[in-house]
């Protein structure tokens, strides 16, 4: 019989808590749930009002994995959802993780959490701009850091502040708070910078997804700014061989990175990092930090 727990007045049935989710480290589902609850304050802050997509891996990273945007069957009636329109298909009803009870329910499904760069009250209107820096072997996150520094400085010239986090996989994410802007504008701006980076750093980066171009270089993926795309959220566990986390990092850490292991963080390290640094992505939650995207009316005023 599955144990029943009460979270914020909601009764939840938690299943298979002793099941090993990450065989390489012996990490159990119960430990995954514990991580999510002890990190709930920042997870909830970065998920707030953003329709969530789930990458589910209930049998561990080596088992079946499936990506879903629609609220899964059996979603409790008290879980808040958002109807998300799509230009080429029917709308999807997606989960909003607004409280601890919903986070625990979702964690019990064993999921990576992904979200768009906009909130449910303004679909397709971005308040963040993102670059996903993906290294092609033998390049690593070390090369991603070099590309990230160039992008940070280039955006600073446009009055934008960039914040960094590991992808929790091989690469690095840069996130920029912007004043609400149609996603097609953030996508166009991000593409322009990716092309500029390719011109400035031809031996380091590529801006096209073509696999033949990518070995030994960093692919600057600007496409995740499109309204229909999502990015792994800060602090989510990833479906990797070990329980790695998409972890906020300092620019000093980015500058000092000479070994991929320096920017590989597992879930048991996050509490200590938060104690030392706080939430390094906290500025993303402050509307006062948002800046107009170049080319918008206010930026040109």
UniProtKB/TrEMBL annotation:
Gene Ontology MF, one: ligase activity
Keywords: Ligase
Domain named DNA ligase D polymerase: residues: 28-280
Matching Gene3D superfamilies: DNA primase, PRIM domain
Region of interest: Disordered: 279-301
Record flagged with keyword Magnesium: no
Pfam families: LigD_Prim-Pol
Bias (Low complexity): 280-295
Presence of keyword Ligase: yes
Lineage: superkingdom: Bacteria
Name recorded for this polypeptide: ATP-dependent DNA ligase
Organism, scientific name: Streptomyces albospinus
């Amino acid at each position: 019989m599955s144990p029943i727990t009460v979270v914020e007045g909601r009764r939840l049935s938690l299943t298979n808590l002793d099941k090993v989710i990450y065989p390489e480290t012996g990490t159990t589902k119960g430990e995954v749930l514990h991580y999510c609850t002890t990190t709930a304050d920042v997870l909830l802050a970065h998920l707030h009002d953003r329709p969530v997509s789930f990458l589910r891996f209930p049998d561990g990273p080596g088992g079946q994995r499936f990506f879903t945007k629609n609220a899964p069957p059996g979603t409790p009636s008290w879980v808040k959802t958002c109807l998300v329109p799509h230009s080429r298909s029917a709308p999807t009803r997606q989960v909003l993780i607004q409280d601890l009870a919903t986070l625990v329910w979702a964690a019990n499904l064993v999921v990576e959490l992904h979200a768009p760069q906009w909130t449910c009250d303004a679909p397709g209107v971005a308040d963040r701009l993102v670059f996903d820096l993906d290294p092609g072997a033998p390049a690593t996150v070390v090369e991603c850091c070099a590309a990230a520094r160039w992008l940070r400085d280039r955006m600073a010239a446009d009055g934008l502040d960039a914040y960094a986090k590991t992808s929790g996989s091989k690469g690095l994410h840069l996130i920029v708070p912007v004043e609400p802007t149609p996603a097609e504008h953030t996508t166009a701006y991000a593409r322009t910078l990716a092309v500029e980076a390719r011109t400035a750093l031809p031996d380091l980066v590529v801006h096209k997804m073509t696999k033949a171009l990518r070995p030994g270089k960093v692919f600057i993926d600007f496409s995740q700014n499109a309204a229909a795309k999502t990015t792994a959220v800060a602090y989510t566990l990833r479906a990797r061989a070990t329980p790695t986390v998409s972890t906020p990092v300092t620019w000093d850490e980015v500058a000092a990175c000479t070994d991929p292991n320096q920017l590989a963080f597992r879930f048991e390290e996050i509490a200590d990092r938060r104690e030392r640094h706080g939430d390094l992505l906290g500025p993303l939650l402050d509307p006062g930090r948002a800046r107009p995207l170049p080319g918008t009316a206010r930026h040109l005023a």
